[in-house]
Design a protein that fits this description.
This is ATP phosphoribosyltransferase. The protein is α/β, with parallel strands linked by helices and 223 residues long. Helix content is 29%, strand content 30%. It is elongated and about 60 Å long. The structure holds adenosine-5'-triphosphate (ATP) and zinc ion.
Length: 223
């Protein structure tokens, strides 16, 4: 742990799809906390553990730099940053948490012009997950162009920015509303507990282990 701290920090999404269930899980794990005035921190009242409320995209970086020992984040975010960071130290996925399930999928317009994965060769695919998509294309030996878009990916085909998209899907309703349908799944994702790649001293390591065991116990009690 950071030498200036004797409390663990766990990073959680501040407001979004994973927020409520992440905090519920921590409460079920036995953590009682009180919010800071600026609502960026939750102070653990019964354990030396504080919760940092942040954008999900910031969680891998906070773990790498050691500002937090643990984080709850989508596997899609964790793996994208690991691949984009090449050989840099990356957070490890300790356990899958069973909520926030979705898939990263390639979707194509309903006009029927793209029927098979091989039809993607030579086309442009818009995504917010360029590293995950590029890795998948490489493994499939498909030579397509990856176009980075950080929002509204699903309208890219209609705007003529791309022929296809690679985006997170849960129900598929957003795709249907944009006259798109799934062609193939690139990866399955859900919320995961991730840990900092930094070396921890024995006391901190033991603290982390205790908290992970509590979280694991709370999760298997989901029913
Ligand atoms: P932030 O403001 O924290 O950056 P965000 O808009 O990037 O939020 P959300 O849309 O809240 O993130 O999604 C958080 C995570 O929820 C995703 O990274 C993914 O793991 C998961 N998720 C589950 N279902 C979906 C879905 N249908 N669309 C997008 N993300 C989903
Ligand atoms: Zn985000």
């Amino acid at each position: 742990m950071n030498e200036n701290r004797d409390r663990l920090r766990i990073a959680v999404q501040k407001s979004g799809r994973l927020s409520d269930q992440s905090l519920d899980l921590l409460r079920r794990a036995g953590l009682v906390f009180r919010s800071s005035r600026d609502r960026l921190f939750l102070y653990g009242e019964n354990m030396p553990v504080d919760v940092l409320l942040v954008r999900d995209d910031d969680i891998p970086g906070l773990l790498v730099e050691g500002s937090c020992e643990l984080g709850i984040v989508g596997r899609n975010v964790l793996d994208e940053q690991r691949l984009a960071g090449a050989d840099a130290p990356a957070p490890a996925e300790l356990q899958a948490l069973g909520f926030g399930s979705c898939r990263l999928a390639i979707a194509v317009p309903d006009n029927g012009l793209i029927k098979n994965v091989t039809d993607l060769a030579g086309l442009r695919i818009a995504t917010s997950y360029p590293a995950l998509l590029a890795e998948w294309l490489r493994k499939q030996s498909i030579d397509a162009e990856v176009v980075l878009l950080n929002g509204s990916v699903e309208i890219a085909p209609r705007l003529g920015k791309a022929h296809a998209i690679c985006d997170l899907v849960s129900s598929g309703a957003t795709l249907a509303a944009n006259q798109l349908h799934e062609l193939v799944t690139v990866m399955r994702s859900e919320a995961v507990l991730a840990s900092s790649p930094r070396a921890q001293n024995a006391a901190t390591a033991a603290q982390i282990e205790r908290l992970c065991a509590r979280i694991g116990g709370a999760q298997s009690g989901d029913g």
